[in-house]
Amino acid sequence: MLNFYIKTYGCQMNERDSDSAAAILEENGYHAVDSEEDADIVILNTCSVRDQAERKAIGKLWIIKSLKEKRPHMIFGIMGCMAQSRGEELLQTIPHLDFAIGTDQIHQLPEVIRAILEGERKIDRDERSGPDTPGIDVHRLDESGRHFSAFVSIMRGCNRYCSYCIVPYVRGPERSRDPQGIVDEVRSLAERGVCEVMLLGQNVAAYGLDGSVPPPPEDCSPFADLLARLQEIEGIRRIRFTSPHPAFFNRRLIHAIAELPKVCKNVHLPLQSGSDRILKLMNRPYTAEKYRDIVGNLKSLIPDITFSTDVIVGFPTETEEDFQMTRDLMNEVGFDNSYIFKYSPRKGTVSARMEDDVPQEEKERRNQILLKDLEDRLAVRNESLVGKTFEILLDGPSKRNPNRWSGRTDGFKLAVFEPKTALKPGDFIQVRIIRSTSMTLYGEQVIEA
Ligand code: 5AD
Ligand code: SF4
After folding, report:
1. pTM reported for the whole predicted model
2. In angstroms, rounded to a whole number, what is the distance separating the alpha carbons of residues 153 and 271?
3. Which parts of 67-220 are beta strand (E)?
4. Whether 434 contacts 444, CB under 8 Å
5. Which of 47, 164, 291 to mutate to test the pocket of ligand 1 (most atoms within 8 A of CB)?
6. Of 297, 339, 370, 395, whose CB neighbour count within 10 A is largest?
7. How many CB atoms lie within 10 A of CB 422?
8. What is the tens place of the pLDDT at every residue in 434-444?
9. Coil, helix or strand for 100?
10. Atom of ligand 2 nearest to the CA of 165
11. What is the pLDDT of residues 21-35, one digit of tens each?
12. Which helix (H) or strand (E) element contains residue 48?
């Protein structure tokens, strides 16, 4: 039996694709192992979104060369965004690379590996597929109950062409899956013990809108309709999603989030910038005012809602004043988490034609300021939760201290506690918060009478 190992870089979409690839390989008789040293087949699932991610994978590609020198029978391939956009070039320049499988061709893996075992070399598969590409709904779940949470891809690709972003070029045009297929997939996951799903797409708020330009009519949201259908599935207790584009938010979606009890009251809403001038240059068709309105409407319907966001600092021409607008808006919304990225030009995108004129040290300074704001805010925010009781979904024992378990609240806060009863990952329990830091809530288990 041949062993395989998949190393994943980048976003949750890639994690999902790796899981689906692993499931397909297992169905074909291959065996998953935890390290490249034990593997006959090593696959890197690559990311292209920032330059750093590409450099990491290329570094790894060369490290693996020495493995293959020791064990020449090894098969070595790449999948994901870099395989899609640079597969041919990498196959040519990296002698020990055997195959490249693009983002829509995961289901071809067994056939490609078989061909290589039969002596073929340098196989490149980068064709596009339809929305319900084969394998998109295959999950590798063990039946021991440990897998209580699953990612579900509801769409592929992106049509937004934000000026800095390479995703539409590598992941292709937006294609929404058939809702019935998604409902069937989630139902079958629930039957296998999954109670939490994370719906994935580059712009989930545009699900089912056939790539139309924003804004959609206020009462039309196929994504909200999908949430309502998933709400009905027995066994599913929490529904999360990432990421929606603010320009596609409307009344219908806001009300669905507020009114569907299983939809978690935690929204990841990428802001990117708080300056209207920069948003325009980014080709993000909304204003800071529109963003404030969405947040304000959600907060007025759901007082406990939490938000997280993505922000880019140092986009070309970003001034101190632009940056301050971002900073002010972030503090005003009071995000519970923010992913802050230093702008990095990506070849082939529109903004790569602009001069990357904010110096690296300045990007770093702006990054540090936003990180410090977040930490200060979270210290205060988390302190205010001391004394409150939350329902948490248990992940399991913490790695550093097995006496401690951790889990997530509906608002995606991490809570740590010492169990008083026999527990298993995937259980829901009540925890009262007794102290906090900016990173973590520490609690005690509340035994329900
Ligand atoms: N430079 C920096 N950050 C980027 N992102 C996307 N492209 C770039 C880029 N060229 C960030 C955006 C996006 C997140 C996934 O990555 O904030 O939301
Ligand atoms: Fe990239 Fe914009 Fe599409 Fe997100 S919405 S994947 S940032 S182009």
Report:
1. 0.96
2. 22
3. 75-80, 99-101, 123-125, 149-153, 155-156, 175-176, 196-200
4. yes
5. 164
6. 370
7. 6
8. 999 999 999 99
9. strand
10. 1
11. 999 999 999 999 999
12. none
